[in-house]
Write a structure and sequence with these properties.
With about 80 residues, this protein is α+β, with helices and mostly antiparallel strands. It has one domain: S16 Ribosomal Protein, Chain: A. It has helices spanning about 55-60, 70-80; strands at about 5-10, 15-25, 35-40, 50, 65. The chain has a five-stranded mixed beta sheet. Strand 3 and strand 4 (about 50) form a beta hairpin. Pfam families: Ribosomal_S16 (PF00886). One of its GO terms (molecular function) is structural constituent of ribosome. Belongs to the bacterial ribosomal protein bS16 family. InterPro entries: Ribosomal_bS16, Ribosomal_bS16_dom_sf. This is Small ribosomal subunit protein bS16.
Length: about 80
């Protein structure tokens, strides 16, 4: 089973926000997932991500591959946590 860390759309039309989830690559984008790892709200200013870096790192250690967008969000969250 290949696990991907990716975004899952939530909310209503025009007011979307995203959950960062660990999901099997065969599952649909908004379908079944294994675990919620955080959230991302592009409409908020400032700190618009809330990602549990411990959970993300444990999934990556197990072989999960983050998408490009999630990879950049993880970097941003890591920099914010280091402050």
């Amino acid at each position: 089973m290949a696990v991907a860390i990716r975004l899952r759309q939530e909310g209503s039309k025009g007011h979307l926000f995203y959950r960062v989830v660990a999901a099997d690559q065969r599952f649909k984008r908004d379908g079944r997932f294994l675990e919620i790892l955080g959230t991302y709200d592009p409409h908020m200013k400032g700190a618009n991500t809330n990602i549990d870096l411990d959970k993300v790192n444990s999934w990556i250690a197990k072989g999960a591959q983050p998408s490009e967008t999630v990879r950049s969000l993880i970097k941003r969250a890591g920099k914010a946590a280091a402050k």
